[in-house]
Amino acid sequence: MKILFVTSELAGLVKVGGLADVSAALPRALEQVAHDEVRVLLPGYPGVLAGLRDAAPIAELPGLADIPPARLLGGRGADGQQLFVIDCAPLYDRPGTPYGDLAGADWADNDVRFARLAFAAAQIAHGLPEFDWQPDLMHVHDWPAALAPGYLAWQDGARPIPSVTTIHNLAHQGLFPAHRLGALGVPEAAFAVDGSEFHGQLGFLKTGLYYANEVTTVSPSYAEEIATPQLGCGLHGLLGGLRDAGRLTGIVNGVDPAWNPRNDPYLVRRFDARSRDAKQRNAQAVRHSLGLAHRPAPLFSLIARMVWQKGVDLVIDACETLVRAGGQLAVMGAGDASLERRMHALSQRHPGSVAVKIGYEEAMAHKVFAASDFFLMPSRFEPCGLTQMYAQRFGALPIARETGGLRDTIDDGITGFLFPDSSVRSLLGAVRRALLMFNFRPGMNQMQREAMRRDFGWDRPAQEYHRVYQRAQAACRTSARHE
């Protein structure tokens, strides 16, 4: 099966979050496990153009309304993955992130920037006269790519192409004013409850959900949660209907094999489930590096964006109790300035017991996972999460809120500790359970062995995605026969 994989991020070229990791890993797994041929389409940001190998022009892409024309390039990523890149300097040749400027503000023309991505996907899907490659299916990711199934549906006389939309985080929907429909080439007839309209606005993600043949998200529990008013972000009715029709599937992400203490180049001493004593050497090195006191204390860690969703405020409020109980805390992350200040104040108040590093360093993250006994992840909601899986691979038992992908990847009392409520009291209840286990070494050793043996590879998710693709193809064929 030939797959056009449409994304706004790709690890190795441009990364903001977990979407980039999935966009790099899943195509490789699909090719290896399901023998699909996958080509990834993404915008031509400066870093993408600089990293594109064997770049060659493929086609000139006509514009639509205010969407400018662009040049389509072909090439390969650093790992050899086949790429399509949209070369359109007026839209993408800018400093900052894929979504905003250096100050963090969204680009004012993000609707056009990502409509260009989605419309290019539809153009490729319908076939380019200059290029002899046409996909059997289109797989789009999150709101930046989600107009593509709509553009497929709105083009008259085109061969129907099945499409799959994946939700990585429903909280980000890509909402724009209704008066932008004409500028983006969206038919007025599509601006309806059964279409692209969302509370009087044009919804990019809603478009992708409504027009796709199949919808996936990144864990089974999150698939259930987003069909409820509490976590459905206003789309729970549509998503509940998709779930009831068997068209909403939760598939847990895999993790990159680089997160493995057996061959990790960043560690002082490598180890596996049978040689966990080497964790202590790594813990000594991290304590020295971060300025934590050298004592046989349980080492807790938190590596996260410092935002409300991640429950960082709960960790701050629980920290005094954790330290009084003899624990140490290593924190790394950045985000909300007020949370950063509060974390820094904790480290000042508890020198030797709390260490805080503002920002993110890949090498240090590996070292902290290897050093930690426990990993804190008190997210208020978590579509999938990756760090709890990294932590288990390194024998750092996660202490996590029982939500979304955390519920699906952590076995309470076996590979980690789950707690039910987004409250300090609930978090501390799980921390106390963890401390009791830390002091019962046979039980602690057994839990670490179980956690490190868990399979979080991409083979199984790739097989599940391939089955979704087959269902989408069947649904598309059935729909075409009925038209």
Characterize this entry briefly.
By secondary structure, the chain is of the alpha/beta class. The chain folds into two domains: 2-254 and 459-482, Glycogen Phosphorylase B (Rossmann fold, 3-Layer(aba) Sandwich), CATH 3.40.50.2000; 278-453, Rossmann fold (3-Layer(aba) Sandwich). 40% of the residues lie in helices and 18% in strands.
Task: Please provide a written account of the structure.
By secondary structure, the protein is an alpha/beta fold. The protein folds into 2 domains: 2-254 and 459-482, 3-Layer(aba) Sandwich (Rossmann fold); 278-453, Glycogen Phosphorylase B (Rossmann fold, 3-Layer(aba) Sandwich), CATH 3.40.50. Helices cover 40% and strands 18% of the residues. Helix 4 packs across helix 6 (148-154). It is elongated, with a radius of gyration of 23 Å.
Shape: elongated
DSSP helical segment count: 18
| Content-based structural category | alpha/beta
* Mean pLDDT score: 95
Q: How would you characterize the largest beta sheet?
A: 9 strands, mixed
| Low-pLDDT residue spans | none
Query: Within the largest sheet, what's the order of strands?
Result: 3-4-5-2-1-6-7-11-12
Number of domains: 2
Q: Radius of gyration in whole Å, from Cα?
A: 23 Å
**Which superfamily, in CATH terms, is the homologous superfamily of the largest domain?**
Glycogen Phosphorylase B
Please state the second-level CATH architecture of the largest domain. 3-Layer(aba) Sandwich
Question: Alpha-carbon distance between the termini?
Answer: 24 Å
Count of DSSP strands? 18
User: What is CATH's topology name of the largest domain?
Assistant: Rossmann fold
Helix content: 25-40%
CATH hierarchy class name of the largest domain: Alpha Beta
